[in-house]
Q: What sequence folds into this?
């Protein structure tokens, strides 16, 4: 099976590496070619455009920043979708909104291409260790055809229903993630103002059942003020924006998400967009 991989950032580079290590034939494209070098050194082929990737592959995987970028790379100048052969499979692992996944699913279907939205739960380390969880929307029989690829890049792929359902679940997860870190940061910030040292405030909060379990995973970052990006803050802000947009589409209010997304937007405006999203703690504690 010949795999095309487009989008070799923090996540895509690791996912493609895992496919390569298991012997899959890879053709890759990334806007910034230097990020492809480790894969090229180990035998992957370089394509000079998304369309060129599409000429050669059975399955094409995208792991790109946001819906606008996915649309541009799929359907813009030298986009891959018009070039993919009928019956090939496009797996979009980017975090996007469900209505966008449905739109891409329709574009694919019109060309006879099978489509899965398959965003991931897990960050840089799970991507490197191939322990990602894939949240999949689309036809079950399409998922079955590419299940071995998900098993190489992750621990599991869960089928959540029709096209868009993977993206829907991903936005729900990241909405909770963004809120958890934010609520914790605000609590510690007031704790420090009330006279607790940072360590005591964090120690006690994290020992209560009130704290989200994920906060313990990030503990070192808060202790050491180390916000090197595993998951860039600008991407989490994008995900909260997409959640709010989706709530609007469904006629649902999302008051907490709308507040939270603007705190992340302020942190981004202050220059923290390329730091890890957990740096919202730093933003509220400065
Ligand atoms: P990243 O390191 O910022 O990579 C983004 C990718 O999109 C890069 O390949 C980048 O190309 C490409 N890109 C951005 N703008 C582009 C444009 N205008 N034209 C063409 N390509 C463009 O991000 P990431 O962390 O790997 O995340 C990728 C996706 O996975 C995002 O949707 C993110 O929300 C999601 N995600 C991330 C994590 C995480 O922990 N990092 C976890 C789960 C899901 P260049 O290399 O040229 O910049």
A:
């Amino acid at each position: 099976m010949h795999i095309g991989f487009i989008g070799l950032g923090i996540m895509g580079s690791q996912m493609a590496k895992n496919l390569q290590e298991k012997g899959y034939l890879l053709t890759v494209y990334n806007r910034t070619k230097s990020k492809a070098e480790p894969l090229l050194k180990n035998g992957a082929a370089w394509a000079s455009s998304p369309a060129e990737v599409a000429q050669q592959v059975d399955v094409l995987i995208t792991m790109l920043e946001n819906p606008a970028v996915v649309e541009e790379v799929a359907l813009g100048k030298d986009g891959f979708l018009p070039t993919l052969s009928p019956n090939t499979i496009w797996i979009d692992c980017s975090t996007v909104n469900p209505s966008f996944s449905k739109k891409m699913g329709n574009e694919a279907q019109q060309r006879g291409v099978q489509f899965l939205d398959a965003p991931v739960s897990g960050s840089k380390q799970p991507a490197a260790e191939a322990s990602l969880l894939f949240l999949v929307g689309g036809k079950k029989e399409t998922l079955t055809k590419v299940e071995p690829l998900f098993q190489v890049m992750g621990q599991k792929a869960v089928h959540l229903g029709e096209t868009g359902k993977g993206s829907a679940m991903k936005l729900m997860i990241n909405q909770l993630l963004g809120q958890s870190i934010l609520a914790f940061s605000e609590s510690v910030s007031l704790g420090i103002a009330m006279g607790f040292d940072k360590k005591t405030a964090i120690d006690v909060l994290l020992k209560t059942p009130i704290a989200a379990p994920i906060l313990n995973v990030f503990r070192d970052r808060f202790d050491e003020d180390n916000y090197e990006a595993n998951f860039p803050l600008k991407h989490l802000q994008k995900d909260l924006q997409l959640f709010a947009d989706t709530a609007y589409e469904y006629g649902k209010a999302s008051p907490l998400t709308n507040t939270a997304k603007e705190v992340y937007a302020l942190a981004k405006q202050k220059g923290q967009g390329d730091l890890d999203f957990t740096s919202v703690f730093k933003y509220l504690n400065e």
Summary: The mean pLDDT is 97. The pocket of NAP is lined by residues 7-12, 30-32, 35, 63-65, 69, 72-73, 94-95, 120, 123-124, 230-232, 235 (CB under 6 Å). The beta strands are 2-6, 25-29, 45-46, 59-62, 89-92, 114-117, 120-121, 132-137, 154-161.
